[in-house]
Amino acid sequence: MEKKTGLIHKTLSRRDFVKTSSLTAGGLLLSSLPLSASAYAAGSDTLTIALIGCGSRGTGAAANALGSSDGVKLVAMADILEDQLRDSYNGLVQRFGDTDKMDVPEENKFVGFDGYKKAIALADVVLLTTPTFFRPLHFEEAVNQGKHVFMEKPVAVDPAGVRRVLEAGKIAKEKNLNVVVGLQRRYDNRYRELYKRLRDGEIGEVISGQVYWNQGPFFIRERRPEWSELEHQIRNHFHFIWQAGDQVLDQMIHNIDVANWYLGEYPATAQGMGGREVRTGKEYGQIFDHNFVEFTYPSGAVISAQCRQIPGCFNIVTERFNGSKGFLSTGGPEGPTIRDRNKNERFRYEGENDPSPYDHEHVELFTSIRNGEVLDNTDYGAKSTMAAVMGFMATYSGQFLEWDKALQSDRRMYPHHDLNPEDVDWDTPAPVQPDENGYYPIPVPGVTQVL
After folding, report:
1. CB 304 within 8 A of CB 292
2. Which of 109, 196, 217, 447 could cross-link to 8 by cystine, CB 3.0-4.6 Å?
3. pLDDT value, residue 415
4. SS3 content of the chain, % helix, strand, coil (to 5)
5. Confidence (pLDDT) at 378
6. Which CATH superfamily is domain 189-353+386-408 in?
7. Which tens digits make up the pLDDT trace of 30-57?
8. Cis peptide leading into residue 154 (ω within 30°)
9. For all residues of the chain together, what is the average pLDDT?
10. Which CATH architecture has domain 14-186+357-378?
11. Nearest to 235 by CA among 438, 244, 282
């Protein structure tokens, strides 16, 4: 298969790990910050942005960034896939083309595995929104080049990647770089108000909680004869462990992060179960269609976490916490409420006109940059990623896992190589290969080893 060089341009211990935990994202409710970053310090120049990863989430993140603030401009784009970059650019031009927010000449559009370096070099702020596997590498490069960062969650797919992000985060801190991670519930007024009330003791000591991300299946892109195996897997990254982990990591990380944030700590242990009940076809790659994880925290609190991707089932995405004095729900059938032990409602969050947290995480990032401050989400982004990684490691293996051992694990659940951008093209063998019938290796609880 011909190499695609581009359309336009060729191109730790647990105690140490958690002690620096930040309990809030920006430290303030959204209402305490300007809704427009036009109120930046006098004399600041326009902030230039590079988008690394031009899929639906990347395009959405770029739209959020450009639409949230004045004085920001997209100047560079990079993606492995030529059509994806083109479609993203055209969509953004449709929305922002009549403003001064789009300034991406042909020579600033990079296609190829190494294009991210060139795009990063052209901007003040980089948006890292590729499949998760590439995040540690791209974050390291952005930090080494001294750039402020917005990076999507999760920040890695395995413990080695988490450790790599933490090391890069130390350098970012030394350079006073701003880093925002796309765990947007931390930038949501509803979650911040409920967090404040929980930490003020309105439900007493948190004893347990339940978090859910139950929905229908992820999309599938049907295999095309012109695609190599590597391209097929990258275009269907949600279905392959090496790129996205599992639903526990890719989606339920949001719920797990809320639990970590509200409890003010990170799981000490995890155990769970899961499997493939409905999505058993070869087109579904490797991941499970249902998972259940039980996290136990140092305080003794137990959080039950469940996720599912099966059609025709009850769907719910929310978090609930049970305390010695009452109950807190962030949503779901009860709505964002606090109730006493007799189920009497004591508080309900309204906030119909709240700003979108997807926009406001960019507002806070730009505000911090312009004010000469440092907003750094790296630690909690990495810690919540590690909690979610430990969760799917537990369901895949069927084993009881401890935080320290999981964090230090270097065992792979799949044949793996680093896909060094300098050495990769579309004929490079994919990290996992189908068997003679087209089926991929699937984790087997009780057999799969993760430590």
Report:
1. yes
2. 109
3. 54
4. 35, 20, 45
5. 98
6. Dihydrodipicolinate Reductase; domain 2 (3.30.360.10)
7. 333 333 333 333 334 899 999 999 999 9
8. yes
9. 89
10. 3-Layer(aba) Sandwich (3.40)
11. 244
Judge whether 92 and 102 are in contact, CB under 8 Å. Answer: yes
Q: By the 8 A CB rule, do 155 and 132 touch? A: yes
For residue 358, which of 152, 195, 155 has the smallest C-alpha distance?
A: 152
What's the one-letter identity of residue 188?
D
When pLDDT is averaged across residues 361-381 and rounded to a whole number, the result is 97
8 pLDDT higher than 60: no
Give the up-direction half-sphere exposure of residue 29: CA atoms within 13 A in the CB hemisphere: 13
The whole-number pLDDT of residue 215 equals: 95
The answer for residues whose C-beta is within 8 angstroms of residue 152's C-beta and 6 or more apart is 53, 57, 58, 61, 128, 129, 132, 135, 181, 182
H/E element holding 402?
strand 401-402
**pLDDT tens, 393-410?**
999 999 999 999 999 998
Q: Following DSSP, what letter does each residue of 158-215 receive, concatenated?
A: SHHHHHHHHHHHHHHHHTT--EEES-GGGG-HHHHHHHHHHHTTTT-SEEEEEEEEEE
* Amino acid in the structure at residue 376: D
Q: Please give the radius of gyration of the chain, using alpha carbons only, rounded to the nearest integer.
A: 22
DSSP 132: G
Our measurement of the distance from residue 85's CA atom to the centroid of its chain's CA atoms, rounded to an integer in Å, reads 21
- DSSP letters for 75-95: EEEEES-HHHHHHHHHHHHHH
How many other CB atoms sit within 10 Å of the CB of residue 117? 19
Please give the structure tokens belonging to residue 379. 């630690």
pLDDT for residue 14:
41
pLDDT of 203 > 80? The answer is yes
Closest CA to 25 of 188, 186, 200: 186
Tens-digit pLDDT profile for residues 316-348: 999 999 999 999 999 999 999 999 999 999 999
Q: Using 50, 70 and 90 to split pLDDT, how confident is the model at 98?
A: confident
Count CB neighbours of 442 within 10 A: 16
Given a contact cutoff of 8 angstroms between Cβ atoms, the answer to whether 112 and 144 are in contact is no
Domain ranges of the chain: 14-186+357-378, 189-353+386-408
Taking the CA atoms of residue 127, residue 3, residue 235 and residue 443 in that order, the dihedral angle to the nearest 10 degrees is: -110
Q: Report residue 100 as tokens.
A: 């001064």
Nearest to 214 by CA among 285, 304, 152: 304
In the block, residue with structure tokens 């195996």: 229
